[in-house]
Amino acid sequence: MLYRETGQFKTSYAADQAIFPIRQDRYLAIAALVLAYVAVPLLGSEYWLLTIMIPFLVFSLAAIGLNLLTGYAGQLSLGTGGFMAVGAFATYKLTTSFPGLNIVAVFLLAGLVAAAVGLAFGFPSLRIKGFYLAVATLAAQFFLIWMFNKFPWFTNYTASGVISAPPRAVFGRFYVTGAEADPVDKYLFVLTVVVLLALAAKNLVRGRIGRAFMAIRDMDIAAEIIGIRPLRTKLLAFAVSSFYCGIAGAMWAFIYTGGVEPLAFDIDRSFQILFMVIIGGLGSILGSFLGAGFIVLTPLFLDNLPRLLGFAIPVNIASNLQAMIFGALIVFFLIAEPRGLARLWQVGKEKLRMWPFPY
Amino acid sequence: MEFLTAVFLTPFATMIDNPSFLLEVVIGGLLTGIMYSLVALGFVLIYKASGVFNFAQGTMVLFAALTFVSLLERGVPVWASFILAALVMVALAFLIERLMLRPLVNQEQIILFMATIGLSYFLAGFGELVWGGDVHLLDIGIPKEPLIFGGILVNEFDLVAAGVAGTLVAGLAFFFQYTRIGRALRAVADDHQAALSVGIPLKTIWVIVWSVAGIVGLVAGIMWGSNLGVQFSISLVALKALPVLILGGFTSVPGAIVGGLVIGAGEKVAEVFWGPITGGAIENWFAYVLALVFLLFRPQGIFGERLIERV
Amino acid sequence: MAAQVKPLGEPVLKAERITLSFGGIRALTEVSFEIRAHEILAIIGPNGAGKTSMLNVINGFYHPQQGTISFKGQLRRRPHAYEAAEHGIARTFQNVALFRGMTTLDNIMTGRLLKMRRNLFWQVLHWGPALKEEIEHRAVVERIIDFLEIQAIRKLPVGQLPYGLQKRVELGRALAMEPELLLLDEPMAGMNVEEKEDMSRFILDVNDEFGTTIALIEHDMGVVMDISDRVVVLDYGRKIADGAPDAVRANRDVIDAYFGMPHE
Prior knowledge:
Chain A is mostly helical. Chain A has 13 helices and 4 strands. Chain B has a single domain (2-297), classed as Orthogonal Bundle (ABC transporter involved in vitamin B12 uptake, BtuC), CATH 1.10.3470.
């Protein structure tokens, strides 16, 4: 009775193509936004905001970036960490060289830098496909991290090699980076950035560019016959994806950890984001969020589970168990639902459409 | 200007000045390359027969080595440890086939690839859980004396490694070409459906292939472990095997050897002669960039099959 | 079938002495023919005669070692497939080259990609000019969907559709490009009589209403005789006949080719 489409007629193509064509979904989305903007800051503790919500949002953004490239355009990439690092270091160099520049502008410019780097490393994708391309992106990953480690120019020649994010504010008053930043301000800032960029991504994929990406993914030879230029489309995919990953990396360093270090963006990070995209669902914006949520919450859950069940597990065993459970879950997901949590969500909605009738 | 000289002139000058040193570096690199090839061999076997890109190969190497060394430490004699460890890898192959390959049998390659990433994490955690996370020193009596051939320094250990690799490759080549099972493996590698239709039992073949790959991994693990000690970083070697595969082609056993040699030598030379300019650690990325450049000119590797895409 | 009086125009495509080899194998040898505006040309011949290769040469997938192709009077040198598309050539494939991850509607919408021009900025907003463009093209695609009678499967992923319907969707995608020359590779393969009648009707309607020039590869002689204006026959990579359907049918060489007899 709850979830019915009866009586909802689309009278225009625009309505049919809307992001949430079903009224109930629209309400759900609005409710989620209200929850995120109002309830969470009011009710959430600092711990929640800083160690759960912010990383979740930042990861979602990176996952969207990778999803655009791998899920929608079909170009497998293991270089996500490297592009995030570019965003983080570009932000550092920009904001220390131009302290007066608004942090939002800095983030956007850093994203553009990351996009340019992504573009450069995307050139091989015309000749190279599939796993070979994945290895090529590994070249990007290892090279970039090595570069940031080796050349002191990136860290402005600090003696210790440890750099921290200088405090910056939006609207002159609300600090979002640095030690004095209020957790609520940080959270709302990240939330807004992610919501806007997610909306942009969703718009992108339901328009002509999204279709071009998917055509390349599904059959890039056949895509040529409808006039798609494979190199241009693939390069665009790399650029847009790296833009998103760059901003995610910038926010990770500046807002979440407060410091910029290459280690945070190594090959493990690339795999982590890839897992989010696989588990959440390739080719789905919603899936990026679901996958990020899963990956952020599962370790916390596993950490706390023994305590909840009443016994303690030594730390090193716990981390091994986590790795095992993670690995097993990945295989399980791929077997049970290769299209990820997003597909499970869709299936759930379809069952809900008919509830309480069995069929 | 100084930078340009350093990059384009000095390294070559050093090489010309000191040819025997260059030769040492190249030979040392070649022999490291053999070690990469040993790992890459396992990849090639599995890819040839099941079309799966087994990202977990490195972790399998580690796991096999851990099992072997832990048995040794508990006083089991070398030959028995080897057989037991090999049996463990066979059992692992059974489990992998049953729990992972069979349910995913018709999925696309990328799904299987990602499943092997999951497998890799699982095995890494499991291995450490069961055998502990310390570094295990491994010594089964492989001589490590440095030898001098005509003014060039070579390590005995590396020669043994080369010998082992050579024997393995010869054995595998023989196996594939001349035995019934080898023929069946080649059929499966070519076309699953066709192989099924002539009655080749796919499941058994997969178990055999993953077992063989596991045992090859065991040998690789023993060699690497003797060299570096058995520790987690061995599984990262698998990542290095990827450029090797790219050069050699994913489906070619001789390609894995040649690829390993090229990568090993190339890496060493780059590190020794160009490393000092930037402060070292070029080895971190050189292999990948080399593979990348190579791919641009020959997308299927040296020996790989040319993908003819027909619409 | 009564001969239709149709205003046949200038040659839209001229293939001259096309020779194509793959390694040691000669796929086409000195094949020359024309396709005239507004006509339906059938390319027939036994299996392996080189028919698909000929289409691949026309739309840029293969580049012949010798010979030239001129389209609309312009000589085309080693064009990319996407250039052929830009010039107005659309095509379907023997093994249905649809985008399996997308719905019928989206697949046909991809046919409109060359005509959609709004840049990244508007795309991201999905508002204003981009939205208007999207809706305009959607209207065109819906007309094609109506024409091909595939409304019911509009939102289904094409991978799930039966083969016959997939071929129809592929035709829709080609039509969405509003091509001047439509190349169809065995559009009726694997269809039953009803489906073939439907497909024939669509092809004739497209040619009638939009004046689209059509070249199709077809094995069903009944269809060929019914709908084509002219027939070109290939055998072992050579053209062995070229003319009106009835003339070709009676041609000795053609009969020999189909029965596998050697001929000069």
